[in-house]
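As noted in the main text, all predictions were made from sequence alone. Below is one such record, for Lipoxygenase.
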Amino acid sequence: MPASACRPNSSSRKQQDASTEIEANFALEENRLYIIDYHDKILPFLNQVNCFDDRKAYATRTIFFLTPIGTLKPIVIELSLPPVDPNSPSKQVLTSPVDATTTWMWQLAKAHVCSNDCGVHQLVHHWLRTHACMEPFIISAHRQLSVMHPIYKLLHPHMRYTLKINALARQYLINAEGIIENDFTTGKHSMLISSAAYKDWWRFDLEGLPEDLIRRGLATRDPTQPHGLRLFIEDYPYANDGLLIWSAIEELVRTYVNYYYQDPSMVCSDSELQAWYYESINRGHEDLKNASWWPRLYSPEDLSSTLTTLIWLASAQHAALNYGQYPYGGHIPIRPPLMRKLVPKEDDPEYAKFVADPEQYFLSALPSRFQSTRFMAVIDILSTHSIDEEYLGERKDLSTWSGDSEILEAFYRFSMEMKRIEKEIEKRNVDPNLRNRHGAGTTAKKKKKRSASL
Ligand SMILES: [Fe+2]
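Prediction:
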């Protein structure tokens, strides 16, 4: 809406409201408004969290506008607290800043949003989706599939270390008084957020990349587009690059499954395979075993789809959620794992301190130096690749398929495709038109990284 120098009278205010509504409708119709909504995931835990002196949080919602250059700009932040008194509002709504005071309020509000994001990222997207929910499939594979079984052999490199890492996480990260409880806003209630997301939100059938993008309102099915999807944000690196990898995995898995299972009866009569899938759901995911959304396992197509999702989760999805943690979150003021102060309102005793020295107030709202240092160390370790990491397309031992030339050829094709995808992503990353992945500083950082690895 254009700025006006005049104080609006009631009729011009009505005109402004109408104009704002028209612009909002236009933005909605053009798919230019997006939301990151942590309200329902965080709000139920806020009373317990905010009773601690050194933990303060909101349940946040942030609305973004998709700008003409394809970047997302935050325009509204809603900060919610559980209602305590019907006469006192439990929500604050902040819009883009207009002066020095609102600029610092906006910074504080953004830090609270990022704190929500940091917690949900770690507890739901990283831990729950790619570690905890994978565990039943891996345990069951070891219990029910022979090491000679073709599906065991296909999954094997994607099951390495997950159980060991999960055990270490239970010992040092998510345990009582562990790193997560100490360093995240949600403190000792952190695992409740994981559990609630598992109970009310997680669905295996929506864990594949295309379904995930559709579920989040970022894509729609369109058979005329590559991968059968039309993205609403044209330059969305996670989706654009991820879909290349998803499709390559899908093609490899389809070829592999069709080679060993030529018709549905072969899938249904494979007792080891059926026992693996049955146990994964009925023992491993027992709380959700009666959910109607579990994919069936009656045909080669069903098997390909489930395996593609599992391999995607263990490889590219986990990489996207894990290895960028330090580069994205290592600078605490940008993405604090916890906040120690709320955004002050004008009638708060803290407000005068905030106005007198907003920078100091902002810094005092962030984690302490000790909390920050420990968190940085942890995510630096988490972001590090193992020295014997196996990358997609780089299978170390193909001799197990030495008699199956079709399978060997499929792996070689996959390997070549992964190299092609790598080159394509590198090309995209230096395209100055793709503003969500390329800009000031990004090239210098890459050069520095390369020389460090030399
Ligand atoms: Fe991980």
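Residues 1-8, 446-454 have pLDDT under 50 and may be disordered. The pocket of fe (ii) ion is lined by residues 126, 131, 318, 322 (CB under 6 Å). These features were considered when defining construct boundaries for the mutagenesis experiments described in Section 2.9.
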